[in-house]
Write a sequence for this structure.
């Protein structure tokens, strides 16, 4: 439920589809070694959505799958 709410916040604030909003949420959580539900809670309870929606240049959030050793 909390993840669905966070997806809605991200979708609305970022003018994104729900699928893209979830991808951003998941990517942020994975890239920053945080639990998805904890990131979702911060999006709901604070002004954290802008942090999730803004890609970091050179940071963990911008790493590609290839650089993380997918396989």
């Amino acid at each position: 439920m909390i993840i669905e709410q966070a997806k809605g916040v991200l979708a609305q604030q970022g003018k994104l589809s729900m699928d893209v909003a979830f991808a951003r949420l998941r990517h942020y959580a994975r890239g920053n070694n945080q639990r998805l539900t904890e990131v979702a809670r911060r999006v709901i309870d604070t002004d954290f959505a802008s942090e999730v929606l803004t890609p970091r240049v050179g940071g963990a959030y911008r790493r590609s799958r290839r650089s993380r050793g997918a396989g």
Q: What stands out?
A: The radius of gyration is 12 Å. Residues 2-62 form one domain.
